[in-house]
């Protein structure tokens, strides 16, 4: 019989995660190897560098139960006493407080955090003031006063926002999210973690992003939303792998094990905890080893591997007794006794069951008392002491009945709170979706307005030109013949312009109509609440894709209109490097390519330079890449590369798409507008993009060559004179 509840195992896992959330600083994830830090500290270096490394060592040793963390903080403090190192004094106080907090000495931690605050005030260091106030919030959180902790986090956040200290704002949101979670405000915690995640994504800080995903996984796990929890676990694992952060990997592996346990997948839980044990040993983190060993000793009991359960339990006892943690002592004694009970080893079963009851005097928890008494009753029964077994069982029954009553009341309150939190979360998600759609509609209206404005400008200029030509004819009768020729040219140009205009309106009426109808239909479905929650990500992604295509269409149209008006008189020739332009376009279109599982590759050297207009070159590269994505099949690749050939610099965009016949190639090279076909996923286009590409290349003294064959992909090659 296995008496330890899922709730008990969750508690061991989440205790570590909460502590990790408060002390995290992923900017130092690269220093997760304590051996690396120790090796570097043996090298000769300036005091300033050594002090910084010692601060990072304090962070790395936070989860160790020995005195390593405190020793590093004290070494840093000793160096700071030198006059030349005085500028590190405030930071040293903060890290002394962190060390005391890690060693479970909150009062000493409070003393040094207060000293850090006074030091920062005396030097008028706003950044240090905000850090000290944040750390005081950490102190109150460690004392269990989460409401007061939130007040300090809010104050630190306000100071950082008002003074533009952006690099630490995300940690305020992260810490406040942990405090709200501890108070049962799961919706508020999710809000803060998501805001922290938004800020961290802007800085591309892989370690910090991993930590925030793990915090979100933890909250969704506590809400029993295992689907969302697992999604954030996967994200956290991906980002922690990028950062090489062993500490965060340990947290994720541990939570994976708990999720598997909660779903009764005990074999997968065992695998996760065994992996976690290896990482904890690699980190040389005693506290993390204790946590994993407690979980493993229980899992092995469930799987019937009793010798393994005893092995892990006794190994944990060797570590935990050094720290005298009553909670873990109880867990290990209980699991060892349970294994001996299952093996019918009556002597050892009774020995460890009695030891467990004795250790519970230091940890007077109702839940632990109840399961300990039941286990002891079974141990007496196994030893044939039926009278004693009955006495203990009566005590167990009395305590269990009383506990069941309390748990029922608590469970009702918890269910009510979960329902309220979930309703608020659904409301928040709905409001966020509505806001995104509204913002997209505003952008769409603005773009359509600009489009109409530029069309009117083009037509107005054409009319003005006609009037000027007529006026010249009246004023100068001597040049009637010449003016007649000029008027004929203007008439031909106007006719061509009208034909282009008609074609443009035809294209726009078709290509603008489809996305606008999609937006209208989506708004109707949202208004009528006809979309399921799981459909929203797909709908939003589809709208984003349509909006991206529409945006490029309008941008090309505006540039095409400008080219008609200015006739390239405003070209700004300058020496430019191709590599940054190509990388920027690849980054901008990476998401569009990922929708079709297309890989974008670039092989452009930094020293490859040309003399051209930067904005027009940016438009050329972006249109060629967009065109390649449009006509490439899913799972294919697109390459942008450059090379020197006969004093010419060649820039090539190569795809594995549908290709073109010679007729289409010739139409594009003639600069005809409207050469367009549907893409591999039915994407529509106006054909303006390639016409604009050809025109801009020639305006920048380049030459366009198209190598393509139906069904075998295309190569758009641009040649410029190398600089």
Major β-sheet strand ordering = 2-4-5-7-6
Mean pLDDT: 78
C-alpha geometry = elongated
Residues in helix, %: over 70%
Counted beta strands: 7
- Rg over CA atoms: 35 Å
Residue stretches low in confidence (pLDDT < 50, at least 5 long) are 1-32
Helix vs. strand class: mainly alpha
Strand content: 5-15%
* Count of helical stretches: 26
Largest sheet: 5 strands, mixed
Distance between the termini: 80 Å
Q: What does this protein look like?
A:
With 723 residues, this protein is mainly alpha-helical. It contains 26 helices and seven strands. The strands form two sheets. Strands 2-4-5-7-6 form a five-stranded mixed β-sheet. The protein has a two-stranded antiparallel ribbon with strand order 1-3. The chain starts with 5 loop residues before the first helix and ends with a strand. The model is unreliable at 1-32 (pLDDT under 50).
């Amino acid at each position: 019989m296995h008496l330890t509840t899922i709730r008990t195992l969750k508690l061991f896992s989440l205790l570590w995660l909460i502590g990790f959330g408060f002390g995290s600083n992923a900017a130092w994830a690269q220093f997760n190897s304590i051996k690396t830090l120790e090796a570097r500290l043996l090298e000769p270096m300036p005091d300033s560098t050594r002090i910084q490394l010692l601060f990072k060592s304090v962070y790395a040793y936070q989860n160790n139960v020995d005195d390593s963390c405190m020793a590093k903080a004290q070494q840093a403090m000793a160096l700071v006493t030198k006059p030349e190192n005085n500028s590190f004094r405030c930071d040293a106080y903060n890290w002394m407080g962190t060390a005391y907090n890690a060693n479970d000495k909150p009062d000493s931690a409070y003393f040094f955090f207060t000293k850090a605050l006074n030091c920062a005030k005396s030097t008028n260091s706003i950044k240090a003031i905000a850090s000290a106030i944040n750390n005081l919030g950490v102190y109150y959180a460690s004392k269990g006063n989460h409401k007061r902790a939130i007040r300090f986090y809010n104050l630190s956040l306000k100071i950082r926002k008002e003074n533009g200290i952006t690099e630490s704002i995300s940690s305020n949101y992260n810490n406040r999210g942990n405090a709200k979670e501890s108070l049962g405000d799961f919706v508020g915690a999710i809000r803060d973690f998501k805001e922290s995640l938004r800020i961290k994504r802007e800085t591309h800080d892989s370690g910090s992003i991993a930590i925030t995903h793990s915090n979100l996984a933890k909250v969704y796990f506590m809400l029993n939303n295992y689907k969302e929890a697992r999604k954030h676990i996967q994200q956290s694992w991906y980002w922690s792998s990028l950062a090489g952060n062993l500490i965060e990997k340990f947290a994720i592996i541990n939570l994976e094990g708990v999720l598997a346990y909660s779903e009764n997948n005990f074999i997968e839980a065992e695998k996760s905890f065994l992996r976690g044990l290896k990482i904890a040993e690699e980190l040389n983190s005693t506290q993390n080893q204790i946590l994993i060993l407690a979980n493993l000793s229980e899992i092995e009991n469930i799987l019937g591997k009793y010798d393994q359960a005893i092995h892990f339990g006794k190994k944990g006892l060797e570590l935990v007794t050094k720290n005298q943690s009553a909670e873990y002592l109880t867990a290990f004694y209980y699991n060892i006794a349970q294994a001996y009970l299952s093996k019918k080893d009556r002597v050892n079963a009774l020995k460890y069951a009695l030891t467990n009851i004795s250790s519970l005097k230091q940890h007077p928890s109702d839940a632990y008392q109840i399961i300990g008494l039941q286990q002891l009753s079974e141990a007496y029964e196994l030893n044939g002491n039926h009278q004693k077994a009955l006495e203990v069982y009566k005590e167990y029954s009395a305590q269990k009945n009383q506990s069941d009553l309390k748990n029922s009341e608590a469970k009702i309150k918890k269910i009510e709170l979960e329902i309220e939190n979930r309703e608020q979360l659904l409301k928040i998600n709905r409001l966020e979706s509505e806001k995104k759609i509204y913002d997209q509609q505003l952008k769409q209206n603005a773009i359509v307005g600009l489009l109409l404005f530029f069309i009117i400008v083009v037509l107005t200029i054409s009319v003005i030109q006609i009037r000027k030509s007529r006026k010249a004819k009246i004023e100068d009768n001597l040049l009637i013949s010449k003016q007649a020729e000029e008027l004929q040219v203007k008439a031909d140009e106007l006719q061509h312009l009208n034909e282009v205009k008609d074609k443009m309106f035809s294209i726009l009426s078709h290509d603008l109509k489809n996305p606008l109808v999609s937006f209208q239909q989506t708004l109707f479905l949202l208004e009528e609440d006809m979309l399921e929650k799981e459909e929203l990500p797909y709908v939003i992604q589809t709208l984003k894709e349509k909006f991206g295509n529409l945006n490029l269409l309008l941008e090309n149209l505006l540039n095409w209109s400008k080219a008609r008006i200015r006739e390239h008189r405003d070209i700004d020739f300058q020496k430019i490097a191709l590599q940054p332009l190509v990388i920027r376009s690849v980054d901008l279109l990476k998401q569009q390519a990922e929708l079709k599982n297309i890989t974008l590759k670039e092989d452009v050297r930094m020293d490859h330079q040309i003399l051209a207009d930067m904005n027009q070159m940016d438009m050329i590269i972006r249109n060629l890449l967009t065109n390649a994505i449009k006509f490439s099949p899913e799972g294919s690749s697109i390459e942008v590369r450059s090379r020197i050939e006969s004093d010419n610099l060649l820039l090539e965009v190569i795809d594995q798409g549908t290709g073109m016949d010679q007729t289409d190639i010739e139409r594009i090279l003639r600069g005809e507008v409207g050469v367009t076909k549907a893409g591999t996923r039915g994407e529509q286009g106006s054909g303006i993009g390639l016409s604009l590409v050809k025109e801009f290349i020639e305006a920048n003294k380049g030459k366009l060559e198209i190598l393509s064959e139906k069904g075998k992909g295309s190569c758009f090659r641009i040649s410029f004179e190398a600089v």
